[in-house]
Specification:
The structure holds 2 protein chains of 2 kinds.
Chain A lengths: L9 H29 L9 H13 L9 H33 L1 H14 L8 H8 L3 H25 L3 H9 L4 H38 L5 H8 L5 H29 L9
Chain B lengths: L3 E10 L2 E11 L4 E6 L5 H9 L6 E6 L12 E4 L11 H13 L7 H17 L15 H14 L4 E5 L7 H18 L2 E5 L3 H7 L2 E6 L14 E7 L23
Parallel strand pairs in B: 3-7, 3-8, 5-6, 6-7
Antiparallel strand pairs in B: 1-2, 1-4, 8-9
The chains are: A mainly alpha, B alpha/beta.
Chain lengths: 271, 258
């Protein structure tokens, strides 16, 4: 039987799913054991048990100076920046995407411009954002928006143009104005596409968030990681990395579930 | 003055002639079938009547109005595919036929919405989709989707209905039942219909008049040098004699009629 026709059973599939995670964990544990056998005070690969201890301390013990639990405070601050940034970018993506996709005049004006702007490396203009917006929240949110919005605009305008012309014509024969076609034909049909595009852009959004926090901030997940780097606190860094990964994964999962629930008519290309 | 009047219409795409010197007058309530080989401009002609395109020369007027520049509520259309909105339920597809042109945002609310939904349910009942109101079009078979598309188009009460190979993607059995469905619908509304079809027998079965599009001039060295026009205009209800307007038609020719 050909390899490509062989399928694992359900139990086996579940085991296979877990296998790479276990392999990474095992490799880390072994590496950690070897290093600590040589030097019990090794800081590079702390024992998994030590990381768990640190993690517990991080999520329960308040900071002595501020009295707040820094872990949750960092999470809150970072998520707020991320949500505002991605939210604004999604709104820009939807509005401009639909306008560019639907209206030849807007397309003629902005299509080329957006194409060029989307090629600007966002991190390269981060200094400009710090200079213009200061070191506060605005510059960090702005970096996420600038990094993500052009991609969303381009993707959404493309999706709008993929709506079959038959539907646009049909809507006109039913007496729909440009506005009605935008609101009732284009926007609802690209909403699931918007969710898809936002899911894809969450990776870059986190990248921009952590980069901005690493450079200038006084709270946030990215800030904390780069702060404790100075003390080689691998246990803290690893806890934060696992937490960020979990948050990103959950967002992706929630968006996918939301898309399924909210757009039952949308099946095609479900990933 | 006839209802649909096509005068000396030419159409070309990028310098390539597609249609040339198309002239025809159609009375209100006529079912016109349009047949011809692939690439002979049938669908182009339909798009011109739909006002999806504007001819490079000549003009088309409906009910004596000035030539339209874009599709409007006077012209209903059903395409072979993609004629219904996939993101709306079957019922809302019919409601959309009323609400799209009636309000600024295209939405109905409150009592207006409830009334429109009731009317939509009546339409669905009539086209045999009463049980599918809350489903999405993807759940419908091809024939059901086309029935919905026709019901939706008729709900907007267009003055002419344009059908671009509406049954082309359906299997032969479904096709036959769609013929009956379309005939019933038309009997109720007495609408002027233009239907493009690949199927000659379908064209003659449903049509009052059958227009054949073909190229009258043909250059073997440059097959694309000339456009197509109406080569035959057949009276499908009168033993297939060339179509004549009632004024032209002398009394005696009716003698051959059953």
């Amino acid at each position: 039987m050909r390899l490509l026709n062989r399928k694992p059973g359900r139990v086996l599939a579940l085991l296979l799913l877990i296998l790479p995670f276990l392999a990474v964990l095992a490799a880390y544990t072994v590496g950690s054991e070897i290093r600590r056998a040589e030097n019990p005070r090794d800081k590079l690969l702390p024992a998994p048990a030590a990381i768990m201890e640190t993690a517990e301390r991080l999520v329960t013990e308040p900071d002595r100076r501020s009295g707040r639990i820094l872990f949750w405070n960092d999470t809150l601050v970072s998520l707020e920046r991320l949500f505002i940034g991605v939210g604004i970018a999604a709104a820009i993506g939807l509005v401009f995407g639909v306008l560019i996709g639907l209206l030849p005049w807007v397309r003629a004006t902005f299509d080329g411009f957006v194409g060029v702007v989307s090629m600007v490396p966002p991190l390269a203009i981060l200094p400009i954002l710090f200079i213009v917006f200061g070191l506060g929240e605005v510059s960090k949110v702005a970096l996420i928006v600038i990094g993500v919005a052009p991609f969303l605009v381009r993707d959404l305008s493309q999706r709008v143009r993929e709506i079959p012309l038959e539907q646009i014509i049909k809507a006109q024969t039913l007496g729909a104005s440009s506005m009605v076609i935008g609101l009732r034909v284009a926007v609802p049909q690209v909403m699931p596409r918007l969710v898809q595009a936002v899911r894809l852009s969450l990776g870059p959004a986190w990248l921009f968030l952590i980069a901005a926090e690493a450079i200038a901030s006084d709270a946030g997940l990215g800030y904390r990681i780069f702060l404790v780097r100075r003390y080689l606190a691998m246990d803290v860094i690893l806890t934060y990395v696992v937490w960020i990964t979990f948050l990103a994964f959950m967002m992706d999962y929630l968006l996918r579930t939301l898309s399924r629930r909210a757009f039952p008519w949308f099946r095609e290309g479900e990933a | 003055m006839s209802f649909v009047s096509v005068r000396d219409v030419h159409q070309r795409y990028g310098g390539r002639p597609i249609l040339e010197r198309v002239n025809i007058e159609v009375e209100e309530g006529t079912f016109v079938s349009i047949v011809g080989a692939s690439g002979c401009g049938k669908s182009t002609f339909l798009r011109l009547i739909l006002a999806q395109e504007v001819p490079v020369r000549g003009e088309i007027s409906v009910a004596g109005a000035p030539p339209a520049k874009e599709p409007d509520r006077d012209r209903g259309v059903v395409f072979q595919r993609y004629s219904v909105f996939p993101h709306m339920t079957v019922r809302d597809n019919v409601v959309a036929a009323e609400s799209f042109g009636a309000s600024r945002t295209g939405w109905f609310f409150g009592a207006q919405l409830r009334a429109a939904r009731e009317r939509a349910d009546a339409v669905l009942e009539r086209i045999g989709l009463g049980h599918m109101g809350s489903s999405y079009p993807a759940a419908l078979s091809g024939g059901m989707q086309q029935r919905l598309a026709i019901g939706q188009a008729l709900t907007a009460r267009p003055r002419i209905l344009l059908l671009d190979e509406p049954f082309g993607a359906l299997d032969p059995g479904t096709r036959l039942s769609m013929h009956d469905f379309l005939s019933d619908m038309r009997a109720e509304a007495n609408m002027t219909v233009f239907m493009v079809t690949h199927d000659l027998s379908e064209g003659f079965k449903l049509g009052d008049r059958v227009l054949v599009f073909d190229k009258v001039r043909w250059d073997p060295q440059a097959p694309e040098a000339y456009g197509a026009t109406i080569t035959y205009d057949i009276d499908a209800r009168n033993g297939g004699i060339p179509f004549q307007t009632p004024a032209q038609l002398p009394e005696e020719t009716h003698a051959s009629q059953p």
